[in-house]
Amino acid sequence: MEQTDSYKTITKASPEVLFKDRNSKFFGYAFPVSSEDEVKAHLDHLKKQHHQARHWCYAYQFGMLERDYVFRANDDGEPGNSAGMPIYGQIQSFEVTNVLIVVVRYFGGTKLGVGGLINAYRTGAQLALEASKIVTRTVNIDFAITFDYKHMNTVMRIIKEKQLNIIDQTLELSCEIIISVRLKDADAIFKIFDTLYEINIKKLND
Q1: Beta-sheet pairing, 55-62 with 70-74
Q2: Which CATH number applies to 6-136?
């Protein structure tokens, strides 16, 4: 079974979206994030921006490969599983990762019931993701290839043949080229360079 080495995410914060139900207002936001510190910063900002709101419910997911996913859903005082999990459900439905979705609620005086809350938070999250630009990215492995200048033609020929992406290079008497390779191709590319005489390759990221 071939491993999946691509994922979907958003490139920038979504515009603010609004869903209303019986005078309650639900403001939805989506942010690209890769750490809990970023999540906290966005939540702190929204709590200042919406300081009169009742609830700041959210869900997030980090990780580029499914086996590495880390996620959390928070109801922030709403009935259990009526807010955070419906929001997280939209992250799963849109198949995005490295994303935070926050839905801020202003209570309108009428209780919505658990079913109403689930629908409102799910819809707020859905609208935020629909307003976002979703892109597909690949999971890449970076390698450093080091060699003497006399082997330049050999190395560059392979890079050209395999259409490898050079992200940095130092071409002097002793040369180093940093390449970025899609995860699914990484083992094969490593073996090609690893078998060449006087050419060294090492993995830079885990």
Answers
A1: antiparallel
A2: 3.30.230.30
